[in-house]
Amino acid sequence: MTVKVLIPTPLQKFTNNQATIECTGSTIVELLDVLEQNCPGIKKRLCDDQGELRRFINFYVNSEDIRFLNGKETPLSDGDEVSIVPAVAGG
């Protein structure tokens, strides 16, 4: 199963400056493991030392926030699009 992952600009240094990557995985957790295999160092930017998703990074599956789905256990299907979006703050 192939999933399209949209990579934000600050993380593209781990993806050879690619804005999108085709990956596999049946859940967000599996997808993160595959991303780490293909793009070493990226997972540490997305997850804390306990393996939990960082609070300031948002994940969307087909435009749906995974916090309102099953979190990091959100299932993925062939053709899904996963967006990784860093939180923006300021005033």
Automatic annotation (TrEMBL):
This is Sulfur carrier protein. The lineage of its organism: Bacteria, Bacillati, Cyanobacteriota, Cyanophyceae, Nodosilineales. Gene3D superfamilies: 3.10.20.30. Pfam families: ThiS (PF02597). InterPro entries: Beta-grasp_dom_sf, MoaD_arc-typ, Mopterin_synth/thiamin_S_b, Sulfur_Carrier/Prot_Modifier, ThiS/MoaD-like. Signal peptide: none annotated.
